[in-house]
Design brief:
Chain A: It comes from Sedimenticola selenatireducens. Chain A: Keywords: Membrane, Transmembrane, Transmembrane helix. Chain A: This is DUF4129 domain-containing protein. The complex is a heterodimer of chains A (499) and B (334). In chain A, α3 packs parallel to α13. Chain A contains 23 helices and 2 strands. A two-stranded antiparallel sheet of chain A has the order 1-2. The radius of gyration of chain A is 38 Å and the shape is elongated. With 334 residues, chain B is of the alpha/beta class. Chain B has 2 domains: 185 residues, P-loop containing nucleotide triphosphate hydrolases (Rossmann fold); 98 residues, Helicase, Ruva Protein, domain 3 (Orthogonal Bundle), CATH 1.10.8.80. In chain B, the strands form 4 sheets. A 5-stranded parallel β-sheet of chain B has the order 2-5-8-1-9. A two-stranded antiparallel sheet of chain B has the order 3-4. Chain B has a two-stranded antiparallel sheet with strand order 6-7. In chain B, β6 and β7 form a beta hairpin. The longest helix of chain B is centred in the N-terminal third of the chain and has 17 residues. The radius of gyration of chain B is 20 Å and the shape is globular. The chains are: A mainly alpha (499), B alpha/beta (334). Chains A and B meet through β1, α21 and α22 of A and α11 and α13 of B.
Chain lengths: 499, 334
């Protein structure tokens, strides 16, 4: 790490200033960061869509859950750019697996809901620490800082606000004549189409926030390391040395500066170490006393006060109690955490198994060159209140119809015939019948698309059905039986075959 | 359904429609078509208005045969026909009539206005001020005229065919929504097709001197009293509950539809069902089907809907919105 090449001004900062530094970096390098995020995130989304084409809610949930997968590459690229190394996006993507894979499983399971994700990510990705070493390192770095938690909370709020804004933008910008899109339905009871449209807003919002989130966490990390390792001072001295080395001609000055710098370093950074090497214990003591006598270190004061002995005793009594309670609580929380970890692992296992099952079940959907299923035509589930799927029909319609006629249920028999004829036409001739179509419109559609005996039969059946349905005029049993026989001759094989 | 001694129809629906009834209603349509060449949809809708005992607002540019249509209707039914050209200075009494002093009899005499007829053509109704419009619309609603405190019932059938010109809107008084609601149907009359116009020109100019309207080809097919009976017949046609639900569903959807600022009220549902009954009768059915409702829905609802300014600016009309609505409202569930 060549600190003198760092692209930002390194100095001790408050957590808010550190996050601000991160945001500045995100603004400066927004496009490459955004492209990197999209390059990883979009394939995940598309894969989720392929696996769960009918479950938009699950798709976006999986996409959101996999966020820790998209972020390491942003961090990697930013860490290089910070020290002046402009790595091309393609080379980052080539190394993507090596950057993302380590600890991915941990990041996607029990660490997924960790609010410190942005801050602890550099420890895993840049320092490559794992296990106990990582834990210790994070404990040291994270001592006394909650900035990353607030960064997560505020980021989540901004993300939600952006998502809602995007949805509103879509609704506002759509022309009025697109009546199927209603703002209330969009926000409160979204159908499948609205949910897919919402995904546009979701992905956009996540992609816009992600660079700022990662950079904010990185800014916190940098500031904390600056604080712990005195990067700012080191950089200052390096700059000082560089300037001095350039001024070879002015040798006395160089000597003075060098001397001063050595004194400065000796005085502020390694006093105990240097003294311990060179002075004996007694010498050091006398030296310290001499230093302390200096006026700069002030004066010695003696303060007298009363200290109640009984209270001290009771405090001591309480001490062991508190200690016991704390240790019990700690044990409980550790146990609880272990339990939670177990639950998460089991859940993740189930989720993985389910995803594999769904992937296998839908493998026909993502066979690119293979023969996919014939594109199914949109069919109404119900028409005139009658179920329009083959599953709702009995296996042998003619026999069922005859049985109903024998029972005197003429209406049910004719309804079955009419429905059966429509289903057969939908199956056989791939008719598209809208839900708003009346019987007459259905007849016109059939006549236009299926001329011949089929439409002739339908033309005879429809008026009888209309008369029964709206005029309550029941046809004779013989008439219905004749319809049954005619139906069987025309459609006998179709519906059975479709079953 | 049977005709009683008083000439009214019994309320019980029949299993079959009487052939003479079908012949009467369909013959009426055919007779009008003898004089008015083309415009079949307009003729059908006007006959529906007559059978449903409603009034019709016709919108179209001048010279498309609106007056001829009403005169032909009056000739086919044998009713009395009046025409009032609405102008900005037209007064209510010019329509309803007034009381005048008869010098010979030395007494006041009621002079009945043009509204006392069977078929009234209110030409360019939007050119008269609101006061005069209201007078006519009150007559349409109440079917009676009050002159100097005395009420005079109008002879039935009474059909008002009001016309509006979609162009030249300067100096007009557009009918308010509440008054438009009183018309059962709003019919658009458009230019005829090439073939129809050719036939029309040939028919009108053959042996005619000047530009007088020729309704000599129309035979009187019915008496006014028969029209009243047909209206009663239409009112008693069988309507399944699902059909009523379908009509209400269409109207309620139109009311809540995005892009509709003011939608049709319950009067719209009532009008829709009345017109659907008339359409069923005209189709020769003794019961109403969803197709009857769907067929008359545009004419019944188009003037009961006010679109939002956005849609109006973009050039959308109520018919476009209604077409969307009809595609989205599910047909009756049996």
């Amino acid at each position: 790490m060549e600190l003198d090449k760092i692209a930002v001004k390194v100095r001790p900062r408050t957590p808010w200033e550190a996050i601000d530094l991160g945001f500045t970096m995100a603004r400066a390098w927004f496009l490459p960061l955004w492209l990197l995020w999209m390059a990883v995130a979009l394939p995940v989304y598309l894969l989720a869509v392929l696996l769960l084409p009918d479950e938009p809610v699950w798709v976006i949930l999986i996409f959101w859950w996999c966020k820790p997968m998209y972020e390491p590459m942003l961090l990697f690229w930013m860490s290089r750019a910070l020290f002046g190394e402009r790595v091309s996006l393609s080379s980052v993507l080539k190394r993507g697996w090596n950057i993302v894979w380590p600890q991915l499983l941990n990041n996607l399971t029990w660490r997924r809901l960790n609010l410190n994700r942005s801050f602890s990510m550099p420890v895993s990705v840049l320092e490559g620490l794992k296990g106990k070493a990582r834990k210790k390192r994070i404990a040291v770095l994270g001592r006394g800082q909650q900035g990353s938690v607030w960064l997560t909370i505020v980021g989540a709020h901004f993300e939600i606000a952006l998502e809602v804004s995007c949805i509103l933008l879509i609704v506002v910008m759509l022309p009025e004549e697109l009546q199927w899109l209603d703002i209330d339905a969009f926000l409160l009871q979204p159908g499948n189409l609205e949910q897919w449209l919402q995904h546009v807003g979701d992905i956009l919002a996540m992609s816009l926030i992600a660079p700022f989130y990662v950079a904010g966490g990185f800014g916190l990390y940098l500031t904390r390391r600056t604080e712990l390792e005195a990067w700012d001072i080191e950089i200052d001295f390096r700059q000082l040395m560089n300037r001095a080395s350039k001024q070879k001609a002015a040798a006395p000055t160089l000597a003075i500066i060098s001397l001063l710098s050595v004194m400065f370093v000796g005085l502020f950074f390694t006093p105990s170490y240097v003294e311990a090497e060179t002075l004996s214990r007694d010498q050091a003591k006398s030296h310290i006393e001499a230093v302390l006598t200096d006026e700069v270190f002030g004066k010695k004061k003696v303060i007298t006060y009363w200290n109640p002995i009984d209270k001290e005793k009771s405090d001591a009594d309480l001490g062991w109690l508190m200690e016991w309670i704390l240790s019990a609580l700690e044990g409980f929380t550790q146990g609880f955490a272990a339990f939670g970890k177990g639950v998460l692992l089991v859940t993740a296992g189930f989720l993985l198994a389910w995803l594999i099952y769904k992937a296998l079940a839908n493998r026909g959907e993502w066979a690119i060159n293979g023969r996919g299923k014939a594109k199914s035509i949109s069919r109404p589930v119900t028409l005139f209140g009658l179920a329009m799927d083959t599953e709702s029909l009995p296996p042998d319609i003619t026999a069922e119809c005859q049985r109903l006629v024998n029972l005197g249920q003429i209406r049910a028999a004719l309804s079955l015939l009419y429905r059966g004829a429509l289903v057969a036409l939908l199956e056989q001739d791939q008719l598209e019948v809208p839900g708003s179509a009346t019987e007459q419109e259905c007849l016109e559609l059939v006549q236009a698309n299926c001329p011949g005996p089929l439409s002739d039969f339908f033309a005879v059946l429809t008026p009888v059905w209309i008369q029964l349905a709206y005029d309550h005029q029941t046809p004779s049993e013989d008439e219905v039986v004749a319809f049954c026989n005619h139906w069987d001759r025309l459609f006998g094989g179709v519906v059975k075959h479709a079953d | 359904m049977k005709v009683t001694d008083e000439g009214n129809m019994a309320a019980e629906p029949e299993a079959e429609i009487a052939p003479e009834i079908v012949a009467q209603v369909q013959g009426l349509e055919r007779e009008i078509q003898r004089a008015v060449i083309g415009q079949r949809v307009v003729i059908r809708e006007v006959v529906i208005g007559l059978l449903a005992a409603g009034h019709v607002l016709v919108e179209g540019v001048p010279g498309l045969g609106k007056t001829l249509l009403v005169r032909a209707l009056a000739a086919a039914v044998g009713g009395r026909f009046s025409r009032v050209q609405f102008t900005p200075d037209l007064m209510p009494s010019d329509i309803s009539g007034h009381v005048m002093f008869d010098m010979k009899r030395d007494a006041f005499r009621v002079r009945k206005g043009p509204v006392f007829c069977n078929f009234l053509l209110a030409d360019e109704i939007n050119r008269a001020p609101a006061k005069t419009q209201s007078a006519l619309l009150e007559v349409m609603q109440e079917q009676q005229v009050t002159i100097e405190g005395t009420s005079y019932a109008l002879e039935r059938p009474f059909l008002v065919l009001a016309t509006q010109n979609p162009i030249e809107q300067e100096g007009t008084y557009p009918l308010p929504q509440a008054q438009l609601d009183r018309f059962l149907l709003k019919v658009f009359i458009d230019y005829p097709t090439q073939d129809d116009e050719q036939a029309l020109v040939q028919h009108v100019t053959q042996g005619a001197v000047g530009d007088l309207l020729d309704i000599s080809a129309v035979n009187q097919l019915l008496e006014p009293q028969q029209i009243v009976q047909l209206q009663q017949y239409a009112a008693n046609l069988r309507v399944d509950d699902q059909i009523i639900a379908y009509a209400v569903r269409i109207v309620r959807t139109a009311r809540d539809w995005s892009g509709v600022e003011v939608g049709p009220g319950p009067r719209g549902s009532i009008a829709l069902l009345r017109a659907a009954r008339a359409n069923a009768l005209l189709s020769g059915n003794h019961f109403v089907t969803p197709d009857d409702v769907k067929a008359v829905a545009p004419a019944v609802l188009r003037h009961r809907m006010k679109l939002t300014t956005d849609l109006e600016i973009e050039g959308y009309r109520a018919d476009d919105v209604l077409a969307d609505i009809l595609v989205n409202v599910e047909a009756p569930r049996i």
